Amino acid sequence: MSVTIGIRREDKNVFERRTPLLPDHVKRLVGAGIDVVVQPSPIRAAGEAAYRAAGALVDEDLSGCKVVFAVKEIPETMFRRDGVYVFFAHVIKGQAYNMPMLARLLDLGCSLVDYEKVTDDSGRRLVFFGRHAGLAGMIDTLWALGRRLEWEGFQTAFSAIRPTHEYTDLTEAKQAVAEAGRRLEREGLPAGLAPTVFGFAGYGNVSRGAQEVFDILPHEILSPVELDTFADKQTDVIYKVVFKEEHMVEPRLPGHLFDLREYYDYPERFRGTFARHLRRLTVLMNCIYWTERYPRLVPRGLIEEIWREEKPRLRVIGDISCDVEGAVECTLECTEPDAPVYVYDVQQGSIIPGVAGDGPVVLAVDNLPCELPIESSRDFGDALMPFVADIARADFSRSLAELDLPAPIKRALIVHRGELTSGFRHLQSHL
């Protein structure tokens, strides 16, 4: 007996051209006896003709689909009773703006699988866009640095780099970064910019994506310890520093040694120490996962303190993690690809669109992978495909104990038949 799944169109903004499954993925599913209905979309990176050629039905109506897959949040009006939905729900931190959506899923007896919680036995995420957020975020940050330095009166190799969404694909974007690197080797950087240091907070998928682009540029690597002690150096070299947890916090108890497991379990026992590093950075790439339990990476007060000093080095914060007033507290709102940056005005505590102003430039696009829609959708779909057939064929009317799903998907089941599952009952307090 065949089953039918649906693929919803993305409509958060005109840049959201991603899809959870490309036509090549759909062709394999149809060949395995799974029918696929794809909502039409005027902006999706994969065209409707390609989906039809793969065997899908292109139709506005997804009501007959057993499971609906999407990327971003699904509007409450699309939910049907007892429906099964798979998407990035953005609810696991109790995000207030999505609690009405979660409440509606509960009211209708629905089931929800959240990609963010699809993990292996060690807790590593299996289905994600993180690498592409890092790739696009780094390209956009290099663009922002070029614009900021131009405003300051510096002409640099970064000036020729464009925002990610203006390139045809990742290959073209990387070629532009490589050309900037060749210009750096020929011309160096203007006097007054040494040392130019890029700091990467975090070392996971997002950070690796950002470093993949940065590493195209000629550079030298410094450890956080070396950063704290090195002197100003020649202008034709840029530097990279990667920070792990032990470089960003320290135990509150004097003489107590840092332990990563303890930090994860008892973050209140630690305090932030990133201030000593931030003063030496030209660009900060924020790639860490953060919740309110943990010390902030960059409190607003720290930015304001640095700006009271003479000629701060910091020009740009590429906040790829993009939690509003989160790890980087001066990220006051999210932006979109066509207007990706603002200056945090240290005098007023507010934001100024663009790159001009008294404070650091903040890049705060919260859906960066949409700037690389085909590449990000392909990698995402490849990671999702091993689970799609099992999700499609599972009998969600069964109890959670009887529900036959792969362990990574069962761990990601936030709501089952209108009830919060055991790992997510804390969300009841947010509802």
The CATH architecture of the largest domain comes to: 3-Layer(aba) Sandwich
Looking at the structure, the CATH topology of the largest domain is Rossmann fold
Q: What is the CATH domain class of the largest domain?
A: Alpha Beta
Structural class: alpha/beta
Tally the beta strands.
18
DSSP helical segment count: 13
What does this structure look like?
The protein is an alpha/beta fold and 431 residues long. It folds into 2 domains: 3-118 and 373-429, Rossmann fold (3-Layer(aba) Sandwich), CATH 3.40.50.720; 130-371, Rossmann fold. Helix content is 30%, strand content 16%. The protein has helices at 23-31, 48-53, 99-107, 130-152, 170-187, 205-214, 224-229, 245-248, 260-265, 275-278, 300-308, 373-393, 407-411; strands at residues 3-7, 34-38, 57-58, 67-69, 84-87, 111-114, 196-201, 219-221, 238-243, 249-251, 270-272, 283-286, 316-319, 341-345, 350-353, 361-363, 413-416, 419-420. The strands form 3 sheets. The chain has an 8-stranded mixed sheet. An 8-stranded mixed sheet has the order 8-9-7-12-13-16-14-15. Strand 5, helix 3 (99-107) and strand 6 form a beta-alpha-beta unit. The two termini are 38 Å apart.
Q: What is the secondary structure topology, with strand pairs?
A:
Blueprint: E1 3-7, H1 23-31, E2 34-38, H2 48-53, E3 57-58, E4 67-69, E5 84-87, H3 99-107, E6 111-114, H4 130-152, H5 170-187, E7 196-201, H6 205-214, E8 219-221, H7 224-229, E9 238-243, H8 245-248, E10 249-251, H9 260-265, E11 270-272, H10 275-278, E12 283-286, H11 300-308, E13 316-319, E14 341-345, E15 350-353, E16 361-363, H12 373-393, H13 407-411, E17 413-416, E18 419-420
Parallel strand pairs: 1-2, 1-4, 2-3, 4-5, 5-6, 7-9, 7-12, 8-9, 12-13, 13-16
Antiparallel strand pairs: 6-17, 10-11, 14-15, 14-16, 17-18
